[in-house]
């Protein structure tokens, strides 16, 4: 999956699941859109479905400091690389 | 010091209507809200009772996602009625978040729809969902989901009471809310209950042979409280909320006072968890009268729990007779909408307030021939133009829990 494809899918998830349309790629989602810890956990579920994998506890914990769309894309790229997807 | 507790706003979503005019129209014209049970692709084929007290009024839930995300259907109902109550009451936003307003609200299960989805994930052997329980599934299905979704949506910071005692859930909400205001713990309480469309509850009562099955082809003819042909209860859905305020506080802010809570009682039968118990009910009624400091003959109207089970109605009629004699008018309001479970107490209280305001007493629907064993009390068999000054709303639940709530027309 290319970076553009990941970004496109994440933006679609944000629009459809979180009702956040076209957020800036480096905007702080918590500060600007009230994206909270519950949303973050829901997003992890979406990422699992998107990649077709189950995330480990450590992988989930590693996502807790993520604040922006770009950081989410980085996280998914790292996961994909680690899992050779 | 004990304080007077008044009711200043109410809202109900019921199988016979959402707004007051709709509900009154159903009462006056004898319209039933019992419909054919919907096919749920799971249990509906296996239960013998094919009727359900169904909400058909269109309701537009205009909630932002940040609130919706932790809500199952039951919390939608709860937040909607509370939204309408707060709009009607016109409470100041500062007061709502002051800590002096609390919430007493519950439901039978949390959201059974969400619980069902969790179990489906567990037992489907599907790998499509890698996180078997969603982050918010617990928040949607926990027993206090209604109460805390209400506090979140409206920024309420006072005490939270979330009774979950099946059929006495919302009568306890009103009673415990009344006590919180009466004893000065809070200046106001939003009280109520809700339950969503749920076939699991139908299956539970069906298994116990307590559900109506003889009128599957004519749903509007059941339930039939106190009638010779009654054959059990009909499960229903709904929600109701009332705002209880300390009288001086309500008066000072110019609130529209629609009634007064003057007493509440709650006890337990101390034994069987299912069978109705005349002694337990009688004691509840007497405790309620004592709490309200009134005599039995001061009660003009009794909203009976009257689920239309063979034994329950007889036990209740006997208890009403023992405590009140044959003087108060008695109506079983479940005859119009079935048993709305966790919301029945508050809905029946709200409908009683409507009748107080309108100067009417609605009859028990489908009461064509009173069962001899229930005939010692004064049944309402036709619409009456009659002033209700003091009313008792009584409810009983599995687990042997009984409540009686005394409401007075505001004078």
UniProtKB/TrEMBL annotation, chain A:
Domain Carrier as annotated: residue spans: 1-80
Segments forming a coiled coil: none
Source organism superkingdom: Bacteria
SUPFAM superfamilies assigned: ACP-like
Protein name, UniProt field: Acyl carrier protein
Organism: Candidatus Desulfacyla euxinica
Upper lineage: Bacteria, Deltaproteobacteria, Candidatus Desulfacyla
UniProtKB/TrEMBL annotation, chain B:
Domain Ketosynthase family 3 (KS3): 2-409
SMART domains in alphabetical order: PKS_KS
Keyword Thylakoid: no
Gene3D superfamilies found in the cross-reference section: 3.40.47.10
Coiled coil region boundaries: none
Gene Ontology annotations of biological process type: fatty acid biosynthetic process
Protein's name in the database: 3-oxoacyl-ACP synthase
PROSITE patterns: KS3_2
Keyword terms, alphabetized: Transferase
């Amino acid at each position: 999956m290319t970076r553009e494809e990941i970004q496109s899918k994440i933006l679609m998830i944000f629009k459809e699941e979180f009702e956040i349309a076209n957020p800036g790629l480096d905007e702080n989602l918590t500060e600007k859109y009230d994206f909270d810890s519950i949303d973050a956990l829901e997003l992890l579920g979406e990422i699992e479905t998107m990649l077709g994998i189950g995330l480990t506890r450590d992988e989930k914990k590693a996502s807790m400091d993520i604040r922006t769309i770009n950081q989410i894309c980085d996280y998914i790229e790292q996961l994909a690389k680690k899992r050779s997807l | 010091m004990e304080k007077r507790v008044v009711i200043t706003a109410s809202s109900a979503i019921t199988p016979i209507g959402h707004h007051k005019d709709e509900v009154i129209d159903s009462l006056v014209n004898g319209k039933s809200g019992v419909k054919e049970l919907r096919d749920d692709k799971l249990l509906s084929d296996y239960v013998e009772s094919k009727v359900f007290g169904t909400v058909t009024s269109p309701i537009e839930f205009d909630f932002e996602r940040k609130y919706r995300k932790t809500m199952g259907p039951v919390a939608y109902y709860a937040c909607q009625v509370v939204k309408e109550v707060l709009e009607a009451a016109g409470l100041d936003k500062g007061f709502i978040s002051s800590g002096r307003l609390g919430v007493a609200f519950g439901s039978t299960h949390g959201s059974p729809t969400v619980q069902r989805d969790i179990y489906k994930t567990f037992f489907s052997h599907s790998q499509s969902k890698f996180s078997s329980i969603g982050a918010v599934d617990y928040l949607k299905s926990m027993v206090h989901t209604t109460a805390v979704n209400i506090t979140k949506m409206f920024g309420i910071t006072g005490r939270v009471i979330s009774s979950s005692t099946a059929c006495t859930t919302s009568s306890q909400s009103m009673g415990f809310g009344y006590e919180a205001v009466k004893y000065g713990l809070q200046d106001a309480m939003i009280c109520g209950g809700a339950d969503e469309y749920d076939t699991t509850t139908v299956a539970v009562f069906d298994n116990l042979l307590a559900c109506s099955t003889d009128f599957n082809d004519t749903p509007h003819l059941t339930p039939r409280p106190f009638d010779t042909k009654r054959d059990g209860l009909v499960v229903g859905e709904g929600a109701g909320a009332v705002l209880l305020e300390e009288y001086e506080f309500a008066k000072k802010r110019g609130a529209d006072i629609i009634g007064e809570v003057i007493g509440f009682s709650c006890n337990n039968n101390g034994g069987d968890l299912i069978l109705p118990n005349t002694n337990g009910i009688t004691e509840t009624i007497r405790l309620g009268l004592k709490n309200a400091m009134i005599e039995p003959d001061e009660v003009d109207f009794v909203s009976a729990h009257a689920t239309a089970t063979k034994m329950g109605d007889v036990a209740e009629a006997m208890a009403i007779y023992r405590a009140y004699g044959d003087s108060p008018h008695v109506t079983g309001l479940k005859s119009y909408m079935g048993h709305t479970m966790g919301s029945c107490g508050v809905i029946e209280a709200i409908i009683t307030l409507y009748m107080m305001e309108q100067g009417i007493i609605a009859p028990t629907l489908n009461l064509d021939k009173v069962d001899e064993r229930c005939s010692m009390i004064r049944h309402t068999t036709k619409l009456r133009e009659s002033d209700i000054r003091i009313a008792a709303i009584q409810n009983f639940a599995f687990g042997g829990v009984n409540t009686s709530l005394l409401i007075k027309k505001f004078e």
